[in-house]
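Throughout our pipeline, every protein is held as a single compact record rather than as scattered files. The remainder of this section carries one protein's record, kept here as part of the documentation.

===
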Amino acid sequence: MNEAKKVFEFLEEAKTFYLTTVEGDQPRVRIYGAQLLFEDKLYLMSFARTAAASQLKANSKAELCAFKGLTLRVECNLVEDTRQEVKDAMLAHMPVLKAALGENGENAVMWEVKNATATFYKMMEPVEALKF
Protein backbone atom coordinates (compact mmCIF):
# COMPACT_ATOMS: atom_id res chain seq x y z
CA MET A 1 0.00 0.00 0.00
CA ASN A 2 1.12 3.52 -0.79
CA GLU A 3 2.46 5.24 2.38
CA ALA A 4 0.36 8.38 1.86
CA LYS A 5 -2.74 6.21 1.41
CA LYS A 6 -2.06 4.37 4.67
CA VAL A 7 -1.81 7.67 6.56
CA PHE A 8 -4.91 9.02 4.79
CA GLU A 9 -6.94 5.94 5.78
CA PHE A 10 -5.80 6.27 9.41
CA LEU A 11 -6.85 9.94 9.47
CA GLU A 12 -10.19 9.07 7.85
CA GLU A 13 -10.91 6.44 10.50
CA ALA A 14 -9.71 8.68 13.35
CA LYS A 15 -12.09 11.43 12.08
CA THR A 16 -10.09 14.26 13.70
CA PHE A 17 -6.43 15.05 14.09
CA TYR A 18 -4.32 17.84 15.48
CA LEU A 19 -2.25 20.13 13.27
CA THR A 20 0.67 22.06 14.71
CA THR A 21 2.14 25.04 12.91
CA VAL A 22 4.70 27.62 13.97
CA GLU A 23 4.15 31.33 14.53
CA GLY A 24 7.52 32.95 15.19
CA ASP A 25 8.90 30.75 17.95
CA GLN A 26 5.46 29.70 19.26
CA PRO A 27 3.82 26.39 18.26
CA ARG A 28 0.09 26.63 17.43
CA VAL A 29 -2.18 23.58 17.62
CA ARG A 30 -5.70 23.15 16.31
CA ILE A 31 -8.14 20.36 15.53
CA TYR A 32 -8.60 19.38 11.88
CA GLY A 33 -10.60 16.80 9.99
CA ALA A 34 -10.30 17.61 6.28
CA GLN A 35 -7.92 15.31 4.45
CA LEU A 36 -7.80 14.08 0.87
CA LEU A 37 -5.94 11.47 -1.13
CA PHE A 38 -5.45 12.84 -4.65
CA GLU A 39 -3.02 11.51 -7.26
CA ASP A 40 -1.65 9.17 -4.54
CA LYS A 41 -0.66 12.20 -2.45
CA LEU A 42 -2.00 13.28 0.93
CA TYR A 43 -3.58 16.73 1.15
CA LEU A 44 -5.01 18.77 4.02
CA MET A 45 -7.42 21.67 3.67
CA SER A 46 -7.53 24.90 5.63
CA PHE A 47 -9.74 27.90 5.25
CA ALA A 48 -8.00 30.70 3.38
CA ARG A 49 -8.45 33.45 5.95
CA THR A 50 -7.11 31.69 9.02
CA ALA A 51 -4.01 32.03 11.13
CA ALA A 52 -3.05 28.47 10.14
CA ALA A 53 -2.95 29.39 6.44
CA SER A 54 -0.83 32.47 7.17
CA GLN A 55 1.51 30.50 9.42
CA LEU A 56 2.01 27.75 6.82
CA LYS A 57 2.73 30.29 4.08
CA ALA A 58 5.43 31.79 6.31
CA ASN A 59 6.84 28.43 7.50
CA SER A 60 5.76 25.17 5.87
CA LYS A 61 6.96 22.97 8.74
CA ALA A 62 4.08 21.20 10.48
CA GLU A 63 3.20 18.15 12.53
CA LEU A 64 0.03 16.10 12.66
CA CYS A 65 -1.09 13.86 15.48
CA ALA A 66 -4.05 11.46 15.57
CA PHE A 67 -5.20 8.61 17.77
CA LYS A 68 -7.19 5.51 16.88
CA GLY A 69 -5.93 2.59 18.94
CA LEU A 70 -2.43 3.58 17.77
CA THR A 71 -1.01 7.07 17.83
CA LEU A 72 0.13 8.60 14.55
CA ARG A 73 2.61 11.46 14.39
CA VAL A 74 3.58 13.01 11.06
CA GLU A 75 6.48 15.43 10.69
CA CYS A 76 6.15 17.19 7.33
CA ASN A 77 6.06 20.27 5.20
CA LEU A 78 2.70 21.52 3.95
CA VAL A 79 3.03 23.07 0.50
CA GLU A 80 0.16 24.95 -1.11
CA ASP A 81 -1.30 23.42 -4.28
CA THR A 82 -3.40 26.02 -6.09
CA ARG A 83 -4.84 23.70 -8.76
CA GLN A 84 -8.62 23.86 -9.04
CA GLU A 85 -8.83 20.08 -9.54
CA VAL A 86 -7.47 19.53 -6.01
CA LYS A 87 -10.18 21.80 -4.55
CA ASP A 88 -12.79 20.05 -6.71
CA ALA A 89 -11.61 16.67 -5.41
CA MET A 90 -11.90 17.92 -1.81
CA LEU A 91 -15.43 19.18 -2.43
CA ALA A 92 -16.35 15.81 -3.97
CA HIS A 93 -14.78 13.95 -1.02
CA MET A 94 -16.36 16.15 1.65
CA PRO A 95 -19.46 17.82 0.12
CA VAL A 96 -20.50 19.04 3.58
CA LEU A 97 -17.75 21.69 3.22
CA LYS A 98 -19.24 23.24 0.08
CA ALA A 99 -21.31 25.85 1.94
CA ALA A 100 -18.27 27.08 3.88
CA LEU A 101 -15.74 26.80 1.04
CA GLY A 102 -17.83 28.34 -1.71
CA GLU A 103 -19.13 26.84 -4.94
CA ASN A 104 -15.62 26.41 -6.38
CA GLY A 105 -13.72 26.09 -3.12
CA GLU A 106 -12.55 29.69 -3.27
CA ASN A 107 -12.33 29.87 0.55
CA ALA A 108 -10.05 26.81 0.75
CA VAL A 109 -6.31 26.37 0.69
CA MET A 110 -5.11 22.90 -0.24
CA TRP A 111 -1.83 21.76 1.30
CA GLU A 112 0.16 18.84 -0.07
CA VAL A 113 1.94 16.84 2.62
CA LYS A 114 5.60 16.61 1.58
CA ASN A 115 8.86 15.40 3.12
CA ALA A 116 6.78 13.38 5.55
CA THR A 117 7.87 10.94 8.21
CA ALA A 118 4.79 9.24 9.63
CA THR A 119 5.35 7.15 12.74
CA PHE A 120 2.75 4.86 14.30
CA TYR A 121 3.13 4.23 18.03
CA LYS A 122 1.65 1.71 20.43
CA MET A 123 1.89 3.39 23.80
CA MET A 124 5.36 4.96 23.57
CA GLU A 125 6.92 2.35 21.29
CA PRO A 126 7.19 3.04 17.57
CA VAL A 127 5.71 0.15 15.56
CA GLU A 128 6.06 1.49 12.00
CA ALA A 129 7.60 4.47 10.25
CA LEU A 130 6.74 5.58 6.71
CA LYS A 131 8.37 8.20 4.53
CA PHE A 132 6.66 9.92 1.61
About this structure: Strands lie at 17-23, 26-32, 35-38, 41-47, 61-68, 70-80, 108-122, 125-131. Residues 75 and 117 are 5 Å apart (CA to CA). The longest helix spans residues 3-14. The longest strand covers residues 108-122.
